[in-house]
Give the backbone structure.
Amino acid sequence: MKKVLIVDDSLFMRQSIKSTLINSGKYLVVGEAATGDQGIELSLDLQPDIITMDNILPDMLGIDIIKELRKEEVSAKIIMVSAVGQENIIQECRASGADDYLVKPFSNESLIERIDKLALDLN
Amino acid sequence: MENLNTKELFAAKSIINQGLSKAAESLSFFMKEEIHFNELSFSINKIDKGIDFTSKFGTNIHLLITNVIGELKGVCCLIFSEEEADKLRHTALPKEIIENPALMAEMSDAIMLEVDNIISASVITQFSNILNHKIYGGVPELKKLSTEELNDYIHSNFMQDLYIINFKTQFASSQINFNPEFVWLFDNTFMNSVKSFALDNANMSKLEVYA
C-alpha cells in the first residue's frame, strides 16, 4: 500500500481526505500535519509516497513547503489540494514541484482518481 | 472620494456577480442543492456607525471572517444564523460524524471554517483571474456573537477609513429556509483596479461574455 501524508490546517479536510483514502482500501495514511513546519518534518521522517498539500497554512504557503521539500530531495508525489484556484498560482505550484493540483470543493471520487494517477506514476 | 462612472460601475458589478456565482456554486456543493444569490447591494463610501451588517437575530450568530491578502486589501464576512449553521453541518458532514457526539463536537466548527475557506476562495479566485492580481484568502476565523455584538465587531474592526467599498448579498435556496449573508469590504485598491480594468475595451468585452 502506498503511504500518504496529509498536510492541511483544516481538521475537517484532514478527516475527509483521510476517510476517503482509507475507505478506498488502497492507501495507508501515515501522518497528518496542520502546519507547514509539521508538514516538512513529517515528510522527512515518514518518507511518504504521496503528499496532499494545502496551499494556505497558518505559518507557510504550500508552494514554499514544496520548494523546501524538493530542495531536501524529497521525491514523494505531491498533490496540492486547495481552495486557491487562480491559474497563475496553479502554474507556479507546478513549476515549483507539485505533480498535480486539485481545487476545493471536490468529490471523493475525483480525489481518489487523481491520487491513483500519481500512485501509478510511482510504479 | 471619487466615484465610479457608469462603465466602471458596470464592470465592478459584473466582476462581483461573477465571483458570487462561483461562491453560490461552492455552497451548493456542500448543501447538496442549488443555491443562488439575491440582488447585490453595493456602495462606495465610509460606512455610518448606525448601519447593520446582518438582519439575523439571536445570540449565537456565526460570523466567519477571512482577510484578503496580497495586491488587493479587504475582508469578507460570511454570516449564518444558528439554525442555518446546523442545517449546513447536518447536510455537509457524513453520517458517521453526525451520529457520533464526540466527533460531531470536534467537527462542528471545523466544517464551518472549511466552508468559509472554500466559498471566500471561490470569489477571490474570480477577482484574481479577472483583475489579474495576486490575492488569496487568509486562514478563516469563526466568532459566535449576538446581533448587536456582530455589528459592533465589524464596525470596530473593519470600519476604519481603509474600507470604502462594500457589497453584500444573501444566498438563498428554493427548497429550504437557508439565507446566509455575505459581506465584503475593500480598500480603494479594488476601485483603482476596476477603473484600470474598465479602461481597456478588450476587458469589457470579456465581461459581457461573463455577465
